[in-house]
Amino acid sequence: RCSRVMSTNCTVTYHTTCPEACPFKAPSSTFPCLFQCVNEMDCSAGNRGLGLADNASYLCKQCEIRNCRRCTSEKICAECYDGFLLHDDGTRCFLAVERHMHVWKIWTCLRILVGGLLLVGFVYRCILRGENKHRVQNQRAIHRAMQHRHLTKVQKWSMSQGEPVQRYPLSTNVHLDHLVGEGMALFYNNLVFLMIFACVAWFTTWGIHHLSGVSEITGTLRVGDFLTTLTTRNRLLEHAISVPGNEPALVISPLRSCGKASSSDVGEKMKKYAELSFWGMGFLYVVSFALSLAYAGFQKRASNAYKRRSTTMNDYAICVTGLPPHLTNEDELCLWLQEEFCKATGKQDTDKEVAISGVSIGYDYTDRAGEVECMIDRLIESVEVAHGHYGAEETTAAIAKPPGATLDELLNEDKKTVHAWFQQGSAQAMRSSGEVFVVMRHKAGVQAMLQHFQHNCELYHPMDPKTKLRFTDTKNEPVSTCWWHFGVTHMRVWGRLAFASVKLLLMIGMVQLMFVKPIAEHVILPYVSGGNPAGGSMFVMAGTFLGWLNMMMCIQIYFTSYDLGFHRKDRRDVVIFWANFLLTLINTVFQIVITAVQVYNQSAEDLGPESFFEVRSVVRFAKELALARNIFLMLNPGMFFVGNLMCPIMAGVVPYLWNLFLMKVIYVWQCLPRPLLRLLRLLVPWAPDNIDRYPVRYAEKGLEGMELGLPWDCAGNIMFPLICCSLLPVASPYIWEVFRGLFCWACFYYCFCRYMHLRFFKAQYYTTRMVDCHVNIAWGIPLSVIASSWCIWALRTDRIPGVTTWWEKWALTAAAFCLSYLLWYVTYMFKVRPFSRDDLRWDSDLDDPPVDEVKNSTLYTWYNCNPVYALKCKHLIVHESSNGRFLRTLDGKRFRNPIASGWDGESVRFFEIGKEYLLLRPDVQQGVHDRPGSKLAFESYFDPVLQYLDNSDQGPDALYALLKPTANGEEKWNAVRPLVEPLTTAVQPYTEAVERTWEAGATPFHTTSSQSQDPFGTMASGRG
Fold this sequence. Notes:
Elements: E1 6-7, E2 24-27, E3 34-38, H1 43-46, E4 52-54, E5 59-61, E6 68-71, E7 77-80, E8 84-86, E9 93-95, H2 96-101, H3 103-128, H4 135-151, E10 155-157, E11 165-167, H5 182-212, H6 214-217, H7 226-229, H8 233-238, E12 241-242, E13 250-251, H9 263-309, E14 317-321, H10 330-345, E15 356-364, H11 369-386, H12 407-421, E16 431-440, H13 443-455, E17 460-461, E18 464-468, E19 470-473, H14 490-529, H15 537-562, H16 569-600, H17 618-669, H18 674-681, H19 696-702, H20 710-725, H21 734-760, H22 770-778, H23 780-796, H24 806-832, H25 851-858, H26 867-877, E20 878-880, E21 886-890, E22 893-894, H27 922-929, H28 939-950, H29 956-963, H30 970-1001, H31 1018-1021
Helix pairs in contact: 3-29, 4-17, 4-19, 4-28, 5-9, 5-20, 5-21, 9-23, 9-24, 11-12, 11-26, 12-26, 14-15, 14-16, 15-16, 16-17, 16-20, 16-22, 17-18, 17-21, 20-22, 20-23, 23-24
């Protein structure tokens, strides 16, 4: 019958004939022994890849033209698929949107634009302009930034005797050494758990596949792409048929390539496969659930063990809330709390359980965060200048307003501002957020005071006798505290979070509707309808654009979470994890849906939703086989390995060299007209408005590396297992290979992250287990997918009676998913109790060093991480006497609270990643800064080359030196003058007009007339 899917036992292919109305055989794309009888016009209707009707063999074959619906010969197409246009000569089908969008014209314009900019830069730098008079200082700033980038990476700093800074080896034990907090140790534990889970799933699915005998019928199919294998000469000859009486002639046919498999064989094997899958999915779910629960408990114990083993500033602080907002004198507050502690316990202030080291007030400066940040920059610059690391002319004072102000003058202005903050009755008075960190001298005091004031007595401050003070343990380190958000109340935070969630969901939805959907409809689906993977220049542009959109979405996620107002960094990291996981999930679902559409559009067999639960369907089995193969190829090696390996290049090498190039173009070479330089300035991170001066501080920030982002990494730890588990309802040999790939990825990713975290990323601290707890909560999603797969195989084997319609089966599958997730969430929250710290107890027999000793290894304290307190110490408390000693006074009284300091405890310092060397002794600082980078860091190989080019006559400066007239160089100018004069005559009036127009309306960027002079004196001498 015409257009009906039929099967053959493959040995009688030579004698198989079709009716005259449809004489051509179209082999199925899903299973070789299936075919349809079609007419000449409908060859590709049964199989999207077969558009050529061969009148000699009466078989539908492939032609050489991709995306062709109907071919008249091997190299001529008569009709293309929808979404494609046929070329005039019939030799190719090209995407219709390429003609409508004039893609080739766009590419040509981009090439002309880039080439024109290079030409203009060459001419402008070497012929029309002179050197930037600040190029030497700007070049030094860029070199300083290149050295600063090495210092921002994860390293072991110490103020004790010996080596001040050491690199951690890649094999370092992250559980024993305090690198960036317990978050890193828990992250690597998660990867080890994924290895164990992948092994369990790998061997379970491997056993199901081989015990069921399905491997016998998929031996030839699992090779993969049927459309490519059946057309190869060796493949056809391997299964050739010898017809008795016609020797030595052989008959070859694609229908013979299925080996011993037939439709009846497939049905029987699938029935056995379904039975084993039911028991296997049950075993996998129970074992995975038990392993996950045991792992969750292990993570909590590992977190507590890490805290007991690593002594940090977190162990010495108590968070007190409810204090009056106008209480901003640390000395008075410290003395009052010490008296209350002694009075409540009856002990002396020297006792380990009550002795207070100092307090650090969380100030409410949300409305002046930008001002505080600029003042902190100047504080750090003043220390750099004082130690001779660079000159005062290379600081931000060079571009400050009013022009001409020196760093000392700006520091004096900062001093007046800080005095106004803490002057009684001032309109600019700084207020406290009511949250204070009380730093005890010993860890024993934290536990004693918390137990006393949380259970035994209440405390009220005399200035506010109605508000009870609340004592809680401090869950984070000072370096991971968001000091600028202490003025944001918890209600405002949750309101902002709700608004940000809606905004991000709307943004993701708009991106999908406005960009992803049109690209899928007009670029990807036309290829899919033709049974081919997407490709071509338009696909490259679309992929690049989607990648750029995803990058913009990630940046938006980062800054949105940054502005929410959380007081602790770990809560912000949780928002980043869930937002990134949602974005990754949507992108992954989009890819899988496109892959499924491509597979199911390969042929015309109609598979409704009810066929998903059929066991004996040969067509469904073949479709699932092809789907699993495509997803396997999508994961391995692409998503598993290639994407990770591209990260150091696309997130490291490329932006590093690109930013360096832009910095040189704008601030050193100035090889473009100033309006273009101002436009390029927008592409440089942390670029100042001024394009003549480039302070070191801006250069350092602009060249810093990508931050160590555990929340971003953890999203993949859930997404990859989720994709693999989503294939469990599919019958395919690629299932166990996918889990084998997951195991290999976990092993590879463990080693890869070691390198990235210790040699590539900028250091960031993750000092709590908050992110890991939410990763474990999200782990319930892959577990629930296993549960729903178990339900699907139960329905396929008719083990759940009373469920007959397809929608009831799908509803039951969804219910299994939801119930499984609910079971995991309830068990995890009430059995493991991840957010509880009741089982964390300090061993009194362990060493309890004073807090001042711990500072030698951490470098950061509760004082030098507090921006406002650091400025207060610098401009209000610490005074240098005539004999060089530091005096500490406030309001005419001696100030006893510890100050924000470094190694000596006297000079004011602010802790910042990459600036740890400023907290060390002056005699070791320069040695630390000049220390060479790691041999495993890619910057170590680029920096010497770049510095050599900067210090030599290579590049634009070489030609400029050749052309520039000198006392003995007039001959050189005369040699090139005939070529240069027409160009200078044509370009000079336009560049001068543009500059006059721009500077007339842009006063912040106004420059002196000396920077607009002709370097060759051509205007005065009449040369152009």
